[in-house]
Amino acid sequence: MEAKRFGVQIQRGLRHWAILQRKGNFGSIELSGIWSALPGAGDELASVYTRVVKEDGSGDIVPWRRCATDRNGEWNTAIRDIPTGGLYRIETCLRVGDRQPIELATRGDMIHHVVVGDIWVIAGQSNAAGYGRGAVNDPPEMGVHLLRHNGQWDLATHPLNESTGTVQALNGEPVNPGHSPYLAFAKEIKKETGVPIGLLQTALGGSPLSRWNPDENGDLYRNMMDVIRSAGGQVKGMLWYQGCSDCDPENAPTYLSRFSRMVERWREDMSDNDLSVLTVQLNRNASSEEGDEADCWWGEVREAQRTAAMTLSRVYVVPSLDSPLSDIIHNCPAGNLLIGGRLAKAALAADYGKTAAYRAPNIVQAAYDPESHDGTPTILLMFADVTGELFAVGNREPVFTVEDGQGKAPITRWRITDKIKVELELSRPLEGAAVVHGAYETNPSAFPVLDTGTHMPMLSFYGYKIKQEKR
């Protein structure tokens, strides 16, 4: 038979390792439960008290405060001024009569390892869920916490998407997941800002955009919203890495419009028009079974990802073409560290007011000259967001492709002519309207143009219109 518990019990509110999404520089909690005085304590109405202390022992953050109590043995309180930081401990006690020293009051429940900071939601498919295999030094860190699939907050450790004791089976992986970019992302933000970070992992390998878009299937979207509500309902931003499952003739052409609507609905349902969405442009699929048609679909999805970051407010994109793989399609742990660092720089610049070069080279102009200085037809590409200067090991890699009314116009040579310019020499003049693609294929060149200032490759582009001067 269980012995009767005296003192204060916490029945509703936080649990160990929880992270509170801050508003401004403060977090708030609501706690409630039951209390029971020791036998012989008399008929005086006891008082429940709570406080918040630093777990490093350096003192109170919020000193003892009296809670609302009643003679039915229930109590409740709201603490609304917990400053950004942690680790904190929430303590309770039961004080019988005003003369009893608070330090000698009857015991109460405690909640350990609580922090106030920012919560980021992980959504998408396998490279978001984390399928990286192999060893890498990416240890856990206090102040970076994870809401696990069992519904409990914990210290964040890989794999983030494991499903032991899950209460959200819908996004449980069919195989054991591995390493992902997001622990590195969270640790970098905490290092640069001092703000603790919480992660909500809702991604699922192989999931198409339709399962995240409430205007379509939307089942993973609804699961994501349930997880967000379980963590308090407010988050700092979204970490989105998805697209492989939409590289087909039905879904690739509409990816941009469907993604745009999905972001709109996310913001509506979270009542946050400024919700930050950090995305990753697709890496490569090294399968030898894909053909030319698949190249076009992958190009369309990558172009949609590039365009979304240019046209949608507070949507950002980082490249991944230089990330090494664990298999034909999944980033390895070393690549995940690279991507996580890039996403952190984007967040630091966009959401934390830090100076960080996070943008990759991005095409902004393609101009055709039918008779360049030596009579060879050329196309001059111009890029923005170049921190240092454009660089390539050589010009024999097939990084760029030109198409016009007659089909592909072969490129005989290409070269970097300026810090932000690339010149393409063609084997024949263009005929009619023409477009240029860059590193768009399913498995594009291993050596795309990069920026010496950030060592990031250019963003892939597809179907970029070439401007032709009338003569």
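Second entry:
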Amino acid sequence: MSPAVAIARARARLATLAGDELLAKLAHGGLTALIIKIGAAGLSFLMVLMLARAMSAEEYGRFGFGFSLAMFLSVIASLGLHTGILRWWPEFTAKKSPDKAVAVLVFGLLWSAIAAVGMAVALGLAIPVLGWSGVAGLDYLYAAALLIVPLTLSEYVASALRAQGSVVRALAAKDIIWRAGFIALAIYAIGAAMSLSAGGVFLFAAAVLMGLVLLQLGRMLGGAGAPVRSVLTAKDGLELLRTALPMWGASVLFAFSQYVDVVLLGMFISPEEVGPYFAATRVANVLGLMLIAANMVAAPIISRLFHSDEHARMQQVLRMIAIGVTVPTLLAFGLIVVTGVPLLETFGAGFSEAYVPLILLSAAFGFNAVCGPTGYLLQMTGHQRAYAQIMLVTYGFTLAIQLVLIPTIGTTGAAIGTLFGLVAWNLWARHLALTKLNLDPTIFSLRAR
């Protein structure tokens, strides 16, 4: 093919895409989400960096352990409803059932609140038991338990706002304002020559995030329209929870790859050793930035296209996401490989010991990114149970690997387990999408085309 022909074809495709209202919305919404996520990634890096500077090595390790534990438990408390609302709101609005859409929205909010409070109480009751087992210095976990409630509610409210199309309002509170609050706290502590405690940071974080959630709630309920008499029966509620169960399982298992390695390390090694690995996980997570931004908009669009039987357009959307995510992700991975050591040293002396885990984790999250919105595709199209089973098997093996390797090779063993888990479930999930839906959400769809 000559260059002139290739250019002509490219221009024709761009003109076609420009005239497609849905793809234009995806591009515009994805760009908005990306801008917010880029800002969030920068703030997240500054957050963990400034906290490392404002805390002792031991307190920073405790912060990493407690923060990862609270994040993981908040996913358990979500009951999968934050994923479910991304499917149900577009589904019922597309079916011209606004009353049921609103009823489902409120149902998810109430159950998220109940489960979050229950999980916080459960952790609080478990802390003395851990103390009796000989684990000392766990008082800061009481403050971490309080953080579970706003974390759970924030995730549900943000998902509901995304489903309603309010991407900026969904993301700005937690991703921008909340993280900026951490940074302001750390700067104040450094300027006042005081050392922050993990417990104090958790109390501050919980208070600020709960305030932001309350502000978001008004916008979420306003976007739902006027209050209506509930059209959900007890049977409907049970069916929603049953449908959300595999989504919940998938969310928990994915959160496993994000947070449980730090929690496991905290049980085997000292807080001072956990700190560098926690910093490495935060840096590596930047590689998921493009995919997260795309998912912010793609999930409800996938649900709408599937329930409208527009499969060809869905593959077109998935291919656009794959291209837009892969190129910058690979560039970011190369940058981390080259600058990883000095990047880690900015957190503190000795943090570069986590360079090998950083590379392994970056490879894991990078591979997950280039595989596209595999999880959302299966969950938005009714294959949530099969998807949850895939994740259960792969992360069962991941846990086994980490429990074997962490006591022997420490942080490197934890990173190896995470790499195995993310690669295995993405390849298996892609195979399921191809066989059940004849859709490929990964970058490999370009080769098939």
